[in-house]
Amino acid sequence: MGRIEDLADRYERHIAPLWQRNLAGAQKTIFVVYPKEDERKLRARKKEFEVRTREAGRSWKEFDFTGAFPAWMAADEYRDAYFECPDDLEMKLETEFNEYAVDQLRQAITATDVDEGTVVGVFGAATLYGFTRISTVLREVEPAIRGRLVLFFPGQYENNNYRLLDARDGWNYLAVPITLHQGDIEQ
After folding, report:
1. Chain Cα centroid distance, residue 182
2. Which residues sit opposite 123 in a β-bridge?
3. How far is CA 17 from the centre of its chain?
4. Closest Cα partner for 122 from 148, 83, 161, 156?
5. What gap in Å lies between CA 62 and CA 101, rounded to an integer?
6. What is the pTM of this model?
7. Beta-sheet pairing, 171-172 with 161-164
8. DSSP letter string, 82-105
9. Cα–Cα distance between 179 and 187 in angstroms, integer?
């Protein structure tokens, strides 16, 4: 069995039991952590997570950040000027793009087809790297999480710290980690 299938097994064991309802948003978040070099493999097999979610009696909704930056940039009237002088874009990234990414995810997790029994699978976290921090985006949407938010996270989890793409200093987050290591799933 491959690494992605192992992660899907661990995910299934976590998602299937009865859910505690009185949790904070961060505690309703699950990080499926995998080596960054497995991103394409995970994407090719992401349907496995949907199938296991539905078999556990939960609803599934998928959200993908992959097109967020290109869509945001294409809509900006000064986009051509930013290509000439990319440093001018830095301040907009910290404010406007972050708000855009937050709004996109918030719309997905508060859609009418999402309820307390829905898992929202979030893909494309790596595409935010260099534009905004996934930790900032998650912090903003936490209060709106209804069921469970499952972030597919290419990076590392060690000592309660998450490191996206193994590149930045990690951050501590209350999410439930699902990794390839034994004994890491906490209920």
Report:
1. 22
2. 64
3. 21
4. 148
5. 15
6. 0.90
7. antiparallel
8. HHH-GGGGHHHIIIIIHHHHHHHH
9. 14
- The one-letter amino acid code at 98 reads N
Map residue 67 onto helix, strand or coil: coil
CA distances from 99 to 147, 152, 169 (A): 22, 21, 23
* Angle at the Cα of 148 from the Cα atoms of 143 and 152, rounded to 5 degrees: 105
* Exposed/middle/buried for residue 44 (C-beta within 10 Å: 0-12, 13-18, 19+): exposed
Contact 154, 32 (CB under 8 A): no
**Which residues on adjacent β-strands are paired with residue 121?**
62, 150
Residues 6 or more apart whose Cβ sits within 8 Å of residue 110: 144, 146
CB within 8 A of 164, min separation 6: which ones? Answer: 125, 126, 129, 134, 153, 154, 155
Per-residue model confidence as pLDDT tens digits over 95-140: 899 999 999 999 999 999 999 999 999 999 999 998 898 989 999 9
